[in-house]
Amino acid sequence: MDFRLRPVRYEELPGWPEDDPSPLFPAMADCRRHVIHVKPYRTGSLGVTADDLLPAFAAADENPPADAAAARVFFETWFTPFLIEPAEVPSGFVTAYYEPDVEVRAEADAEYRHPFYRRPDDLIDLDETNRPPTLDASYAFGRLDGETVAEYADRRAIDEGHLAGRGLEIAFARSRVDVFFAHIQGAARLRFADGRVLRITYAAKSGHPFSPIGRLLIDRGEIDAATVSMASIRAWLAAHPDRADDVLWHNRSYIFFREAPVTDLSRGPVAAAKVPLVAGRSLAVDRLIHTFGTPFHIASDSLTHIDRGRPFRRLMLALDTGTAITGPARGDLFIGSGEAAGVLAGNVRNAAHFHILIPRAAAKRFGHGKG
After folding, report:
1. Are 265 and 197 in contact (CB under 8 A)?
2. Which run of H or E residues covers position 201?
3. Contact 190, 198 (CB under 8 A)
4. Confidence of residue 43 (pLDDT cuts 50, 70, 90)
5. DSSP code of residue 65
6. φ, ψ for residue 86, nearest 5 deg
7. Neighbouring residues of 124: CB distance < 8 A, sequence distance ≥ 6
8. Strand partners, 318
9. Which residue of 92, 185, 263, 307 sits 20 to 30 Å from the alpha carbon of 208, by its own alpha carbon?
10. Whole-number Å distance between alpha carbons of 68 and 65
């Protein structure tokens, strides 16, 4: 592996005595139900398994803590913290995402004409058994045409009508940029004119590699690398409508959604772990390395705008993943839903220390005896 784990004491976790990890307990209970009644989470290459996590999940579900101190004692009892030390960089790195609110219409008109699409029936999952040699190993999806598997249509082709007339439209937005940024976040709350709210979440993607348009604009000298953010990218797109499509089409990856009825707007969207995200406490990780449901303590001295000027220091739960989230100490923080969450999320690009909490019964496999 290109990193190592170093066991530490809870006293070494920055901000641990002040943290309140109580919001993680309903999410752990949700994870337990998913693992038992639906399917276990895929084990990442690190080797933490769903079976390792289940006893702690059960204890969290059966005896939720009465206060923040009891919540910390729970984790101190059930888990051993390890600092993740990447081999080539001094620390990890975090960005953030949110669930946008997008005004939509059920039918297209002259103003609302940019669709959110469901997954097409000719889009198939790819793996080593069916991926043609013409497609790079990074392609997890492709197009089935009869008995032939090929690359799926990219963002430009779909924006120009590749899927039109197939009845895949969920709703229509006023702005192609709003659709694009919902793709980046992987979820959205769609608000209809009659007051109805429909939550949509990631279903699949076209398969093409993700190409960040912020990097493109920096490389072209359009945006300052020191100040790039979601807000600055949106401002550039709004100021250059004649060039916006060219920039958006640079990211060939296209996201398809599924409807997720809103039963409780106070809870987040259902993401990759198939349980609702918890605002400010959910983390997207590299699922090839880490296993959903694993707790992580994230500490960043430079990330201060989330907690009103204080360094970000929180225990979080791995409940999601993302194309750009690669590496053992790389995470995407779920901030919440709506415009205010978007403002906070759009400015997160910070170095951070990652501590992974491994169940004590499994800690000996990672070089820490009894924990």
Report:
1. yes
2. strand 197-205
3. yes
4. very high
5. -
6. -65, 150
7. 130, 141, 142, 143, 144, 149
8. 283
9. 92
10. 7
Give the chain's length.
371
Query: 10 Å Cβ neighbour count for 246?
Result: 11
CATH annotation of 3-96+265-366 = 2.40.40.10
Query: Which tokens is 324 given?
Result: 């750009």
Contact of 108 with 164, CB cutoff 8 Å: no
Q: Is 2.40.240.50 the CATH classification of the domain at 99-214+244-260?
A: yes
Mean of all residue pLDDT scores within the chain: 94
pLDDT tens digit sequence for 112-137: 999 999 999 999 999 989 999 999 98
Tokens describing residue 256 = 């398809």
Q: What is the DSSP letter of 277?
A: -
Q: Lowest mean pLDDT of 55-59, 100-104, 140-144, 345-349, name the range.
A: 345-349
The tokens describing 53, both together, are 């996590």
pLDDT of 160 higher than 80 = yes
What is the domain partition of the chain in residue ranges?
Answer: 3-96+265-366, 99-214+244-260, 215-243
For residue 221, give every residue at least 6 positions away whose Cβ sits within 8 Å of its Cβ, in sequence order, or none. none
Structure tokens at 194: 């009659």
